[in-house]
Amino acid sequence: MTEENPIDRLDDDDYPAYTMGRAAEMLGTTAGFLRAIGEARLITPLRSEGGHRRYSRYQLRIAARARELVDGGMAIDAACRIVILEDQLEEAQRLNAEYRKAAAQSPADPDSGRDHEPDRGR
Asked: Which among 12, 26, 60, 65 has most CB atoms closer than 10 A?
């Protein structure tokens, strides 16, 4: 087994590198805002061995989007729900593009050229 190089984590969007204070500073918000979006289940920060919240870059991008909506006057619960739906839509579109690409690269189905009548329970 090889040990993971800590430098490799610099490019990992899911690595929980940021403390709550640093994350709040980067987003220009408060620790209370981060706790609130955690309570709304928008993001779930990982915990250090000492129990401190740690945030990843991906989570910070999600939090930044929620902050945009809240700063625009939206209630925090509504903003979190919108961000969740946006994230789900983005993931579905990414998967759809992958499936289309795979389908375009796969050999044609040998039965696809035949004319088939649907089975109507005969």
From this structure: 60
